[in-house]
Each structure stands twice: as structure tokens, then as C-alpha cells.
Amino acid sequence: METNQRLTDDHFPENPEKATLDGKNKFLGFWLFLGGETVLFATLFAVYIGLRDNHMDGPSAKELFQLPTVFLATMLLLTSSLTSVYAVLALKQNKVKSMIGWFLVTLLLGLGFLGLEVYEFIEYVHEGHTFTKSAFSSSFYTLVGFHGGHVLFGCLWLVTLLLRNWNRGITLTNAPKYYLFALYWHFVDVVWVFIFTVVYLMGKVG
Amino acid sequence: MADHTKTEQPVHRNEALHRKIAIKEERKYHNVSFIMMILLTLIAFYAIWSDKVSSSFAILFILVLAVIQVFFQLYIWMHLSHKGHDFPLWGMISGILIAAITVAGIAGLIWTS
């Protein structure tokens, strides 16, 4: 079967993302990548936990962090994780329009999260919390910024994915791509769960 | 694919119905896990915000909440519990194991120096 062919409901495989060898390889490779990403973020977390009290004469975590902004950002990212899971459910039912719709909602929520993060960083810089201020500020921006970079990358990835496949329906070639994007997006949310817990909430109690 | 004949058509339709039910079931799981994660987040924020819980206990408490939440993400939203996920599961477990050693190692090193 031609893998670029638009799939019809009659011949729709149960797991279109793993129906070809190509898809299976992508799936496996991507999970290995996520295992590696886990270690990468672990190193950044470890450095942050080690250095978070060294704020020199800059503001400390307790003075700096604004929980309402963080809470809102958390809700945005958590909801976007749900909408991307809805998109995958639509993918598995060959509902192209619904899938694209849910992915667009995911994209909007992701962009909203990014906007909040940029706003937050600008506020911090105004309060003297710049990248080179202290070991605390450097490790903070590296960790949280790296996560923000992942969100930005995810948004760009999703935009290219949607534009490229806009009129193609669901095929055996693009189904694994959509599926992997959703996995990536969940992973970014997993990292955020630890960031709001370890960085923001633990920063507030000192 | 090639040996599917017309006689299998009813079976095929039956299969489609089964799949529809399975997806409906899955959606329910996703919704429940979303509500659970929102609740866990709310509890974590409240524990810190309200200042009613002692610091050291609160830290342990919110860390446990985070781990539970990650479990929901990995198992339900990223489908790690589904069939054919043995290899990814091992990949993630070894990743998380190395991650835990890394955090303990580096944070411990900086702490004691």
C-alpha cells in the first residue's frame, strides 16, 4: 500500500502510527530520545537544586516568584496536554478536521504559556534577577529557559507539521509524525510538573 | 492485508464497533486523569500558598504529588500501559533511574562542597 495515500475509514489500521516499519522505528527512536531528554533535564535540575540558595545580593527565590503567574502557566500547559491527547484520539478515528482543530488549540495554549514566561522573565530582569547576577539566577534561567525553548520548538514543530500536511488527510506517513509530536508535548508537560514543584513551590518555602 | 476477502466484512464491521467503544473508554480515562492532575496541582499550590503546612513536610508532600502526576502523564496520556510498549518502558525507566542518580549525585556534590 502506498504510504502517502489518504487513509479511508474502511482500511484504517488500529494503530496508524505503528502500521509501517518506518512508523515503528520512529516510535522506538523517539522514546529513546525521551529517555535521553530525561537525563538532560536531570542534570539541569541537579545544578539548580545545588545552587538555588546562592543568590548573592540579588533577589532570592522567595522574594522573586509570583505564584499566580506560575499557576496560570501550569494550567495552560496541562490543558494543552489534554487537547493534544484529544488530537491523538481523533487521529486514531481518522477524523482529520477534529485532529487539526485540537492541535490548533494545543498550539494556542502553548503560545499562551510562552507569552506568560516571556512576561515573567522581563519582570524578573527588572527586579535585578539577570542571567549573570548569581549562581541561582544562571541555573534558574538555564533550567526554565531550556524548558521554554522546548515549548517554543514544539510550537514551531507543530506549525510545520500542520502546514505540510494540511490537505493530505491522515496517511501512514504522517500518522507517526502527529503521534510523536503529541508524545513530545506530554513530555514537555512532565518536565514542567517538576519545574513548578522543584523551582517555584520549593522556592517559596525556601 | 491481501488475504482479506469479502466474507470477512461483518467481522470487520464488528471490529470497528469494538474500536469505537475502546476509544470512548480511552477518552474517559483521559478526562479522569486530567481532573486528577488538576486536583494534584491545586493541592500542591494550596499546600505552599496557605503556609499551613510545615516547610520540610510540604516539600516532601509536593514532590510525591509531582511523581503521581508524572505517572498519570506517562501511563495514561503517553500510553505506556498499552500493548507493545515494553521497550519504551524500559527506555524510560533506565532514563529516570540515571536521572535520579544524576540529581542525587550533582546536587549532593555541590551541597557538600
From TrEMBL, chain A:
GO biological process per UniProt: aerobic electron transport chain
Topological category with respect to the lipid bilayer: Multi-pass membrane protein
The record's listing under InterPro entries reads: Cyt_c/ubiquinol_Oxase_su3, Cyt_c_oxidase-like_su3, Cyt_c_oxidase_su3-like_sf, Cyt_c_oxidase_su3_a-hlx
Q: What broad class describes the main subcellular location of this protein? A: membrane
Q: Which Gene3D superfamilies match?
A: Cytochrome c oxidase, subunit III, four-helix bundle
Q: Name one GO cellular component term.
A: plasma membrane
Q: Among its keywords, does the record have Membrane? A: yes
Q: Name one GO molecular function term.
A: cytochrome-c oxidase activity
Q: Which PANTHER family match?
A: CYTOCHROME C OXIDASE SUBUNIT 3, CYTOCHROME C OXIDASE SUBUNIT III
Q: What is this protein called?
A: Cytochrome c oxidase subunit III
Automatic annotation (TrEMBL), chain B:
Q: Name a single GO biological process.
A: aerobic electron transport chain
User: Topology versus the membrane, per the UniProt entry?
Assistant: Multi-pass membrane protein
Q: Which UniProt keywords apply?
A: Cell membrane, Membrane, Transmembrane, Transmembrane helix
Instruction: State if Transmembrane helix is listed as a keyword.
Output: yes
Q: Which InterPro entries match?
A: Cyt_c_oxidase_su4_prok, Cytochrome_c_oxidase_bac_sub4
Quick one: a GO cellular component term? plasma membrane
Name it. Cytochrome c oxidase subunit IV
Question: Source taxonomy lineage?
Answer: Bacteria, Bacillati, Bacillota, Bacilli, Bacillales
